[in-house]
Specification:
Oligomer: homodimer
CATH architecture of the largest domain in chain A: Alpha-Beta Barrel
Largest interface: A-B, 65 and 65 residues
Number of strands of chain A: 16
Radius of gyration of chain A: 19 Å
Number of domains of chain A: 2
Number of helices of chain A: 8
Shape of chain A: globular
Helix content of chain A: 25-40%
CATH topology of the largest domain in chain A: D-amino Acid Aminotransferase, Chain A, domain 2
């Protein structure tokens, strides 16, 4: 039995999807993971804007934005004080077999609401443990940055983590570039500035990453996207990870390497937590 | 409306899968595409052996082999003279959200039967047109060779083909290595020997490719897996593509480059078509 608080397919409450959906057949779709807090879907416009960009890149025709917002409002109305709303949009059912996208297709909306809990106080105060995975991420520009449904790399990487007790796992690319965590983006703090990996060859360009890149300069903190490797990480003063659920979370250790705690990370977290959106 | 001739989920006829299936959520599963000819699922043991290897690599526990064979026999009984049987095995439903594979999980079998038609005589006699895609495949050892459900690269590459009228599209990797077609494996014929790309960094190790590698030596034709680039293709005497549906099909042209027709390709095709399996 799933612990989902609700599931909806094309706006109808229910848990069943046609087996010919191209999301299942090929991972032909995208998703968003949205934090619902006190009846508010946080950063909803940013999530929907990213979804729209992703759909355009995959050339999935989607016009049901009004219906999607109605779906979301309905699910949010069902949410406890804190919950996760997961939205999947697939290219819809395949009429015929084969990879090529059908000429006519009707995208499908699949929504689920899940319980979640706040980040533990100790994690925010002391920072979290991050371990480096053995798996190396493929570098593939056509899909880089998208929150698409082809997530087997994340599944295999997360499986490595079941052996330890890290809060998050760090992913490097086949060229040994820093990419992200399995479920988060990462930022290094160096001499008062923020550095985060480019999302042009691998990884997911997270909404919370985007919020940090937007908010940091407003606090007078420069933030830059660039190529980074493990040596940059070891040379950094501090590190934090981000995603829609956890917000900004300081990293205490990567493997055996210990970071200091940074006032910058605390300020960023507090600022973003206090945003109305 | 799908043109499927039948669909079964865990052995029960029907078209509906729980939306929390990890095959849909993450592409966390594998598939097989089997040709059914005259009431016979061709090369079934090779397909099931590959499925078993893939499940082991993804650490998906699966024990329902007897049930799967029963499912297959039932579907084959429904098949016309020529059909495609597609088998998907996913890690099953997710009880909680998150990439990490649950400790307890029940793999799900999703089977569909599709109409198909024989390869056209003109294609076998004159060879087919193949065009090179703009998309470059990521190189990712952990998933290489597997017929997994993360197939967005194939979808995007196949979408390029909608603009032309090639029979198949050729995929190169980000390092410009030859990998495969979108839906097939490829072989070059050079001085009476066969060369086919390694499947250790990208691509799917097809069952028909494996049959060719097994049958060619029995005909006195050496066959070798190796790294290959476009220059090797242009230097080859002939080329052919393979998959479970089409068998062995000669290539006439790649882009503007024209190949000769090879007796070796004809012999291989005739031999494999005549196999009882």
């Amino acid at each position: 039995m799933s612990d989902a608080l609700g599931m909806w397919v094309d706006g109808v409450e229910g848990n069943l999807v046609p087996a010919d959906d191209r999301g299942l057949q090929y991972g032909d779709g995208l998703f968003e993971t949205i934090l619902v807090r006190d009846g508010n879907a946080r950063f909803l416009d940013a999530h929907l804007a990213r979804l729209e960009r992703g759909l355009a890149r995959l050339a999935i025709p989607f016009t049901a934005w009004r219906e999607l917002r109605t779906d979301i409002a309905r699910a949010v109305g069902r949410a406890p004080r804190l919950a996760i709303l997961k939205i999947i949009v697939t290219r819809g059912s395949a009429e015929t077999r084969g990879y090529a996208p059908p000429k006519t297709t009707r995208a499908r909306r699949i929504m689920s609401l899940w319980p979640t809990s706040p980040v533990e106080h100790v994690h925010l105060e002391q920072g979290v443990q991050v371990n480096v995975t053995e798996l190396r991420l493929a570098e593939a520009a056509p899909l880089a940055g998208l929150k698409h449904l082809n997530r087997l790399e994340n599944v295999l990487a997360a499986a490595e983590g079941l052996r330890g007790n890290a809060f998050e796992l760090l992913l490097l690319s086949t060229r040994d570039q820093l990419v992200s965590g399995v479920m988060s983006n990462l930022f290094l703090v160096k001499e008062g500035e923020l550095h985060t990996p480019l999302m042009d060859r691998a990884g997911v360009a997270g909404v919370m990453r985007q919020i940090v890149l937007r908010e940091a300069p407003l606090l007078g903190i420069a933030a830059r996207e660039q190529e980074l490797v493990l040596a940059d990480l070891f040379a950094a003063d501090a590190m934090f990870i981000t995603n829609a659920r956890i917000g900004v979370v300081p990293v205490r250790r990567v493997g055996e390497h210990v970071f200091g705690m940074s006032e910058i990370v605390k300020r960023l977290r507090a600022t973003i937590e206090a945003l109305d959106a």
